[in-house]
Amino acid sequence: MRLVFAALSALLLAPAAHAFxxxxxxxxxxxxxxxxxxxxxxxxxxYYPTGRLSSGDRVIVHRHDPGGWFMxxxxxxxxxxxxxxxxxxxxxxxxxxxxSVAVRVGSRFDETDQDVVSRQLSxxxxxxxxxxxxxxxxxxxxxIAPPRLEYRWVSGGVLTxxxxxxxxxxxxxxxxxxxxxxxxxxxxxxPRNAGKTSGSEITYESTPIxxxxxxxxxxxxxxxxxxxxxxxxGWSFKKLETDYRQLMESTRIPGFRxxxxxxxxxxxxxxxxxxxxxxxxxxxxxTDRRDAAIRQAGLQVxxxxxPQPTIPNRSKSTTQPQPTPQPT
Length: 328
Description:
Shape: elongated
Order of helices and strands: HEEEEEEEEEEEEEEHHH
Distance between the termini: 195 Å
Number of domains: 3
Strand content: 15-25%
CATH architecture of the largest domain: Roll
Number of helices: 4
CATH topology of the largest domain: SH3 type barrels
Low-confidence stretches: 1-23, 167-175, 178-203
């Protein structure tokens, strides 16, 4: 009897189990159901953001990770960094010449975020070069399109598999960098609990606009304009720079730090311009003094070369003329 009950239970539960495990048919295409969805460099909020998705965008999901984070193909606009050393570049194609090269995930919010290493490239592998940059120490980097087997992560709570959408939902073009590649099953290993993320574990992450922070930035920009509009000799950016840095440290909006870094870079440019103008003014004053000294020296030389004639003294003699002796 127990065997019969077990068999019947298995038959009854099989369809439900099959439907539940459909999500493990990786990869699959999913639609983003919210605006301002953050794409991250790893499966968690501690990983820096790399981009943003809008409602209706599509992504290719390759795996479900713990915490409700879904591993996806890098969305359109994603990029990575590799060291320029050890890569031979011909046009837009880079060929790895080193034994191994680390690929670092790039961020559209802040290009100084380069800490996450996604994978290693081996000798003779090729990449698409789309730009250049440098790391925090000034070493040259190549900006590349994300190579094969590189991924990003999105909170799964905002994704809906395309196969589960209602028939009347509009079709939106996929924004994944997979291009026209066919979506197929992959041999990528998944965690034991892949596809079994409960509703309570699904994370929802978006980036609402922080109006006070942007208002503070706008106020500082107005002050910047007032200072820059005055005479260069009176420019003083010390307090403004301090205010910008305090705002940067107090805000955690993705990409906001980049906005402030651009302002700080502009302050440095204005300071350099002010210094250059001071040097030009000092040089002009020095040149004027030198020219005046040269003119003065020239006058002295001219006077020595052309002395003025001496005018003889024609004053009357005090002695009376003697009469001319006459012959006798």
